[in-house]
């Protein structure tokens, strides 16, 4: 990659951002597409998101946004897509040449696209978590044709806030998860449980039908305990890495104006220290 005065800049903004796989993914696609661009990781202080975005506005091409800035990203934008508005969060800001900022949220489409690649039945979903990722996922699952999504969360009030958005969503406490699993065609973990440094996700999959698909949004480690249990039960699995790559596809298209080329999974596995 040759960086010159004409090289365009894009990146990911988070705190922390140093662990992000987005630079690995996007720089590989930049190279494959022969683009004169570079994709960096920006880690502003917790109160520095607005300053950074105002500095990049009209200068950079766009940024992906991760924890903890997704809600702020939506608030800063001049225009927001329906998925971003409904999720109450943006994971993508595109800087237009006129200085305006367009917000989108590609997490939901990334989730469903990753599920499509593994195969799933759009019937009833159990969604663990009620944070930003869960909110976007709930809406994406409804858009994908699910008749019902049970939102299971430690803090019931947060699940109830999501359930209030659509009659096909219902809020459950953690102790009701087992019963909900009995009729689930898809289980999605959208909590941070099971992530390196976080408590494990303790959930029996005994009640889950063997025809179901299990998705874990967590990708550090890539082979989570949940996916290991799902594999032992013989159900289809979708890793957080699969979702991450699929959410990056429309982000790249929006930032660079062309479809990405090339398989980046092996590069991501190397960056995660996992065998391909
Ligand atoms: P968030 O807004 O902080 O939400 C965290 C969720 O985890 C909440 O529902 C929270 O429950 C729950 N939780 C945290 N600690 C818990 C514990 N000890 N016991 C029970 N529940 C607990 O985070 P987020 O942005 O939604 O992200 C959630 C996960 O999705 C993260 O691991 C993130 O990395 C991952 N993610 C992956 C992708 C991808 O492309 N693979 C994309 C987006 C997000 P309470 O409401 O009770 O606190």
Rg, rounded, reads 19 Å
Indicate the proportion of strand residues: 15-25%
What's the pLDDT, averaged over the residues? 95
The number of distinct helices, counting runs of at least 4 residues, comes to 11
Let me know the largest β-sheet. 6 strands, mixed
Helix and strand succession? Answer: EHEHEHEHEEHEHEHEHEEHEHH
Number of domains: 2
Going across the major beta sheet, what is the strand order?
Answer: 2-1-3-5-6-4
Number of strands: 12
* Helix share, percent: 25-40%
Query: Would you identify the CATH H-level superfamily of the largest domain?
Result: NAD(P)-binding Rossmann-like Domain
Tell me the name of the CATH class of the largest domain.
Alpha Beta
CATH architecture of the largest domain: 3-Layer(aba) Sandwich
Q: What gap, in angstroms, lies between the N and C termini?
A: 25 Å
Structure characteristics:
alpha/beta, Rossmann fold, six-stranded mixed sheet, 11 helices, 12 strands
